[in-house]
Specification:
The protein is built from 18 helices and no strands. With 406 residues, it is mostly helical. α1 (3-37) crosses α10 and α6 crosses α13.
Length: 406
């Protein structure tokens, strides 16, 4: 890879770091807003969901345009709008104000992130596609971890507003750096004239995913995304609020959240290497099976900071790793000309599943569900992913058959 390619990948990873920090910012701010603004934490369920709605809508309606017109404009514009709306979140004083700003942030991220994933696949060597995509998207657990670990210092220095000012400013700097570095280009140019003409004939490129032979692979891919996203947003939305109920301080809960998310970095890269070099379905069965076992163990044990931290590293880290690994699976399920569409519409379906996470967490919090029971619920979506992962080999054979007929 050239120096420009490596710099491009590093900056693209920066977008995922910004997203991870941004996701964690709202969860870390919520328990502090009751004292600062008099806002009830249980009322923020739909604020978390607003981000998911925006991510889904932006991913399905805007991101696929990158398959038609190239990725640079969508990536840079999405990054810039994300920065501005995240800065705007720091000015909110009501739940409705937070909801509007998070919705705009989600729309911008939804337009940007699928194109980041697709472009990282296009820049990567063929034999390392899943691994490079995972390393780039590893920015999410890095950002989540940095937010948890640095939150006490940021709040001391800038107040709760600093949790949004930091990622917002970072996003704007990234947008300015990305424009001259990324090369404008149209995806699919290396796939042959017939493939490019096929993409051009489709008025909405994402509709190809709903037709044979791509419907079954997309259903497998999107279903795993949906269940894993439900876990990811349930946990990262409420973990800093739930853990103090088990006897931890807010600062300790924030740091445990950060450590657990940081574990996702190593898990995701290791699983992606296996995905590139080993059995893809079995790799995912092992990943999601370990997650389910960790949350079941929490449910069956009394609160203990040391033991729960280790188990959350596997469970929460695994949920973040799933978000890193599954886009890499898409690079094997779909041709390059369909990657933005597959990841973008997959994001929509994932958010439809994830919509249940924050409100479910808010309901459990409002009904005083014990922390161990709250976390035990996360075993169920992980088990669903294990079952779906068993269908991955059949989905991969569909693409092979389609390419053999072409």
């Amino acid at each position: 890879m050239t120096g420009r390619t490596m710099l491009s990948l590093a900056l693209l990873a920066g977008i995922f770091i910004m997203e991870g920090f941004d996701i964690a910012a709202m969860a870390l701010a919520v328990p502090r807003l009751e004292g600062a603004l008099g806002l009830d934490p249980a009322g923020f369920g739909w604020v978390f969901t607003a981000l998911l709605i925006g991510l889904g809508a932006g991913g399905a309606l805007i991101a696929p345009l990158g398959d038609r017109y190239g990725r640079r404009t969508l990536i840079v514009a999405g990054c810039l709008v994300t920065g501005l709306s995240t800065l705007g979140t720091a000015s909110a004083t009501t739940i409705s104000g937070f909801l509007v700003w998070r919705l705009v942030t989600g729309l911008a991220l939804g337009a940007c992130l699928p194109n980041v994933s697709a472009l990282s696949a296009e820049l990567a060597p063929q034999r390392l596609r899943a691994t490079i995509m995972a390393v780039v998207s590893a920015g999410i657990p890095v950002g989540l971890a940095l937010a948890g670990l640095l939150a006490p210092e940021i709040v001391d220095l800038l107040g709760w507003e600093g949790l949004f000012l930091v990622p917002g400013a970072f996003a704007i700097v990234l947008a300015a750096a990305l424009w001259p570095i990324l090369e404008p280009g149209i995806p699919g140019v290396g796939e042959g004239r017939e493939a490019s003409e096929e993409t051009a004939k489709e008025p909405l490129p994402q509709l190809a995913l709903l037709k044979s032979p791509w419907l079954f692979p997309f259903a497998v891919f999107a279903a795993m995304l949906a269940f894993n996203a439900g876990n990811l947003y349930l946990l990262n939305s409420w973990l800093p609020t739930v853990l103090p109920g088990a006897g931890l301080t807010m600062d300790a809960a924030a740091r445990i959240t950060g450590v657990a998310n940081l574990a996702g970095l190593g898990i995701g890269i290791a699983a992606s290497l296996l995905l590139d070099r080993w059995r893809k379905g079995l790799t995912l069965v092992l990943l999601f099976g370990a997650m389910a076992a960790s949350f079941a163990a929490i449910w069956l044990t009394a609160p203990d900071p040391a033991r729960w931290t280790l188990l959350l590293m596997v469970g929460v880290g695994g949920a973040n790793a799933g978000g890193m690994v599954l886009p890499g699976l898409a690079a094997y399920l779909f041709p390059a000309r369909m990657l933005s569409s597959a990841v973008g519409v997959g994001v929509l379906v994932a958010r439809l599943g994830a919509f249940a996470g924050p409100p479910l967490g808010g309901w459990m919090l409002a009904t005083s569900v014990a922390p161990k029971d709250f976390l035990g619920v996360a075993a169920l979506p992980a088990l669903a992913c294990v079952v779906i992962a068993l269908l991955v080999p059949a989905a991969l054979r569909r693409r092979e058959a389609a390419e053999a007929r072409a």
